[in-house]
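Ops channel
N.P.: pipeline sanity check, posting one input/output pair.
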């Protein structure tokens, strides 16, 4: 499109900018209102260059039509409208935002800057409406006279952040409401009262006309709405109904345990079904089922008397409220059932004379129920910490009590905390005697918590005084004792701790609410006082044995703490921290045992998640350190290999030596080549290899490698090449992709020791936004290397791309093959996918970004016999390594150049002035002081047409501009000749 040299020069004035920059330079601007780039105003070119150099999404809006020129960041926002949008009119490119953009263009032409934060727009980039939010900045562009002629736009898509903030706000609103609801019903002890408050608060919160609850009949069709809240003007719907009357959808969804959601019953269901709803004043509904033991047990619903588009928030509210409400209903019902066992539970607690305490060492928190707080003279509602424990100890007992606690929490000692001490009341100053007992709970070498019991033994210690006080104030003390025991029973009943009491026959003597609920959730069976815990688990023999084995220790008289997993997988599996104690009668004889347990599943899950995250971080740091080491040594290795390979190559080409010596030279050259390949693999793994990505013809590449791969894999492996006739070009480094495919083919061959089929195929594909993939959204060319070999296990697949990991024998592989392929793909902006099954085979997919331009034909090999065709002129060779410079000078001399050497960039600049007839510069990149890129830039300021070639053995080549020809160390004379041809100074450019 740009055959005119003048036009090419004008375009070259715009540099960089990635793919958008390439598109701008390649576009025929003569067919647009702006005209050729050379005719653009200086202000336009300056702003376009600024935009291309910016990583921020930017666009230039030029003139009254808002002609659109943009960079890569803005191209991402355009989506599928790129590249057609380039050079288009703003109002035509974004017709859905025409009014907004018209105001922007007008403001820019008035010279007014604009700024919009979280601007909401509706775009149609993918064939459907999508709401987006943008931060937008518009700055006016002025000509030399100060007149506004356009705008420079900066565009930031903050849609995901806005949506996340809204979801967070809804979540906070939901949990605030649930907290308020929980507080409102916490003190209620009647199921109807609980549901009445719940329905009223839900309807008011969602501004609806009705909220109701119902119980299902045994036939699973009839149901009774026992209560509802209805707004003024809406009828009460209390009564008995048939589920079938509400339609097939209601039966299907609710019987299947799914919510029934209808936004407008007149529009969404049959008229006769909608009439059932309409007759009781309902136009829209969400009905949430409650499934118990596989049966539809109850319903809870929200309704509106007009069509209502239900939101996710509405659904989340009724779902959460349904579960919590029926939990409260069950709690109220359980209270009635447990009143009969209250006396037995009190006997167990009284027999143990316990106050429970729990120190969370990790969180540094202390739990004391009111009974224990009272032992330290602290009010029930006053928060406590370990400081209250130590400060409350009598000075004479402080040291020995502290030592005993420290021994219990010490992972190396793990002593039983068993001590009697005096306390001095914090609020009342009263001296009390306390007997405390407990144990530490450990994980590895760390104490997580210390749990135990405390008993007020003041009466035992002051027996005579207690007897006198008892005689004097018997009636008062009896009343106080009853109150204390009632308080204790209430605390035990309502605590989240799971408390079971059982006799020697494994029959339950008592249990609290938390225990009843937990057992049912774990095993799907509701425990009953007097039943045998073993009998109710007869249908689950493995869990029955687990429970028997655990309780048998306690019933045998052992007191211990245990961390274990309980529950049937069909219902719920939970980790519990259990403390078992012996239950004794008044005479001190054991009559059973009791268990106090806490659900620690979430805590253990979080600990495992933290450990996994730490392990992932260690692996990432290890790989990064190896990558840095690899990149650092690559420069030195490549500099060492350059004179070795160059010299050996010259000896081979000149056929120096006898047959034996030539074989030795060939062997040395092969070893040097293997060293070069190893360095390239290390760099590929570290994603630091110097690449020259261009548009490559993948079909030609893989078909051209067929014979090489067949000769490599041998006759036992059938090689099948499969590529479609029409295949997009890929943006990649041709030589590196060939090496990657050869590595994968060798791996496939080794996986088929007795032979098989190796299929190499290619296809195009697209990764869309939202796809579950490690690849970025975009279009790709996928190359597949599949074998019918042994396959890999899951453990091997998990480590397949680790550096130096190999399943081959010692000396049969470096373990860098897949690592190199993975590193190459990542560096090119693509990735790899591995699929494998033992005994079936392995398929490795190499995904490369699709190129926008046509593939560049590979240069044809130059016949080495034409090495010296006469004098080609004078070349300036620059390298700070003497041996590398000497080797390169020999190669240039062999090609036909007269070589002038310089050991630094500064010396090279001086040589340029001394040699006016200089034809070419060949320079190293990384040198002390001035590097190769800076040297070339300075030379071209004065001699812009002088060809230059940069050679580099350094891993990090980001500093080398893509428009400068370069050659990677080490290299042979033929590779040097091909690189010189790429500079425009070909082998035929002989100086005369």
């Amino acid at each position: 499109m740009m055959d005119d040299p003048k036009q090419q020069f004008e375009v070259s004035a715009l540099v960089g900018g990635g793919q958008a920059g390439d598109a701008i330079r390649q576009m025929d601007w003569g067919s647009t209102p702006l005209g050729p780039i050379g005719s653009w105003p200086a202000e336009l070119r300056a702003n376009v260059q600024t935009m291309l150099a910016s990583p921020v999404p930017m666009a230039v809006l030029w003139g009254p039509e808002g002609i659109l020129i943009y960079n890569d960041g803005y191209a991402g926002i355009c989506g599928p409208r790129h590249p057609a949008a380039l050079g288009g009119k703003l109002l035509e490119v974004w017709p859905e935002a025409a009014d907004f953009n018209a105001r922007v263009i007008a403001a820019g032409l008035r010279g007014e800057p604009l700024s919009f934060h979280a601007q909401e727009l509706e775009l149609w980039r993918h064939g459907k409406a999508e709401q987006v939010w943008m931060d937008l900045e518009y700055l006016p562009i002025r000509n030399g006279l100060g007149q506004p002629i356009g705008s420079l736009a900066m565009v930031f898509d903050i849609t995901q952040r806005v949506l996340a903030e809204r979801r967070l706000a809804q979540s906070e609103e939901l949990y605030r409401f649930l907290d308020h609801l929980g507080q409102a019903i916490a003190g209620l002890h009647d199921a109807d009262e609980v549901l009445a408050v719940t329905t009223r608060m839900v309807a008011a919160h969602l501004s609806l006309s009705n909220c109701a609850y119902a119980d299902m009949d045994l036939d699973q069709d009839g149901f009774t709405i026992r209560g509802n809240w209805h707004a003024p003007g809406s009828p009460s719907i209390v009564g008995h109904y048939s589920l079938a009357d509400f339609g097939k959808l209601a039966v299907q969804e609710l019987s299947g345990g799914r919510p029934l959601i209808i936004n407008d019953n007149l529009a969404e269901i049959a008229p006769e079904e909608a009439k059932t709803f309409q007759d009781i004043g309902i136009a829209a509904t969400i009905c949430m089922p409650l499934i118990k033991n596989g049966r539809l047990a109850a319903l809870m619903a929200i309704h509106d008397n007009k069509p209502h588009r239900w939101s996710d928030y509405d659904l989340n509210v009724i779902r959460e409220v349904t579960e919590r409400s029926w939990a409260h209903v069950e709690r109220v019902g359980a209270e009635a059932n447990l009143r009969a066992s209250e006396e037995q539970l009190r006997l167990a607690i009284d027999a143990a004379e316990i106050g429970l305490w729990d120190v969370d060492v990790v969180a540094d928190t202390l739990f004391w129920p009111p009974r224990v707080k009272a032992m330290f003279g602290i009010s029930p509602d006053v928060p406590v910490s370990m400081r209250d424990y130590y400060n409350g100890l009598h000075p004479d007992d402080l040291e020995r009590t502290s030592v005993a606690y420290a021994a219990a929490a010490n992972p190396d000692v793990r002593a039983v905390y068993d001590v009697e001490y005096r306390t001095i009341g914090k609020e009342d100053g009263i001296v009390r005697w306390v007997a405390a007992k407990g144990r530490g709970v450990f994980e590895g070498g760390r104490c997580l918590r210390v749990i135990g019991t405390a008993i007020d033994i003041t009466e035992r210690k002051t027996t005579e005084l207690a007897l006198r006080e008892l005689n004097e104030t018997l009636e008062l003390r009896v009343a106080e004792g009853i109150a204390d025991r009632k308080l204790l029973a209430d605390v035990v009943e309502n605590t989240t701790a799971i408390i079971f009491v059982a006799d020697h026959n494994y029959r339950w003597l008592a249990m609290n609410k938390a225990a009843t609920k937990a057992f049912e959730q774990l095993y799907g069976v509701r425990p009953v006082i007097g039943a045998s815990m073993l009998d109710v688990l007869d249908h689950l023999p493995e869990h029955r044995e687990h429970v028997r084995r655990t309780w048998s220790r306690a019933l045998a008289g052992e007191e211990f703490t245990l961390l274990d997993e309980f529950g049937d997988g069909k219902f719920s599996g939970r980790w519990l921290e259990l403390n078992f104690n012996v239950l004794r009668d008044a005479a001190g004889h054991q009559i059973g045992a009791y268990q106090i347990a806490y659900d620690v599943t979430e805590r253990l899950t979080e600990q495992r998640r933290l450990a996994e995250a730490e392990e992932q971080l260690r692996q990432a740091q290890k790989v990064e350190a190896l990558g840095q080491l690899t990149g650092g040594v690559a420069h030195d290795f490549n500099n060492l290999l350059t004179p070795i390979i160059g010299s050996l190559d010259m000896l081979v080409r000149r056929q120096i030596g006898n047959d034996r010596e030539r074989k030795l030279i060939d062997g040395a050259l092969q070893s040097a080549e293997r060293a070069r390949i190893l360095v390239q693999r290390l760099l590929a793994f570290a994603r630091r290899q110097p690449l020259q990505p261009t548009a490559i013809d993948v079909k030609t590449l893989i078909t051209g490698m067929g014979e090489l791969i067949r000769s490599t894999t041998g006759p036992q492996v059938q090689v099948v090449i499969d590529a479609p006739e029409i295949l997009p070009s890929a943006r990649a480094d041709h030589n590196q992709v060939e090496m990657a495919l050869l590595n994968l083919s060798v791996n496939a061959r080794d996986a088929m020791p007795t032979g098989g089929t190796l299929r190499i195929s290619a296809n195009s594909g697209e990764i869309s936004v939202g796809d579950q993939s490690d690849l970025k959204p975009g279009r790709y060319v996928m190359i597949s290397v599949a074998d019918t070999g042994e396959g890999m296990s899951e453990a091997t697949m998990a480590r397949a791309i680790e550096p130096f990991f190999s399943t081959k024998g010692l000396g049969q592989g470096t373990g860098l093959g897949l690592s190199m392929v993975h590193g190459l793909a990542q560096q090119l902006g693509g990735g790899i996918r591995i699929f494998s099954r033992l005994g079936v085979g392995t398929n490795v997919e190499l995904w490369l970004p699709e190129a926008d331009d046509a593939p560049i034909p590979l240069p044809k090999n130059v016949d080495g016999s034409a090495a010296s065709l006469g004098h080609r002129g004078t070349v300036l060779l620059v390298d700070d390594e003497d041996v590398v410079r000497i080797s390169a000078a020999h190669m240039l001399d062999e090609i036909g150049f007269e070589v002038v050497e310089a050991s630094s960039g500064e010396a090279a600049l001086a040589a340029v002035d001394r040699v006016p007839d200089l034809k070419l510069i060949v320079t190293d990149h990384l040198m002390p002081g001035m590097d190769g890129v800076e040297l070339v830039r300075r030379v071209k300021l004065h001699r812009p047409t002088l060809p230059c070639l940069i050679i580099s053995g350094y891993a990090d080549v980001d500093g080398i501009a893509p428009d400068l020809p370069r050659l990677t160390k080490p290299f042979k004379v033929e590779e040097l000749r091909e690189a010189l041809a790429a500079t425009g100074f070909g082998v035929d450019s002989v100086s005369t």
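N.P.: looks fine end to end. Confidence is low (pLDDT under 50) at residues 5-9, 860-869, 987-992.
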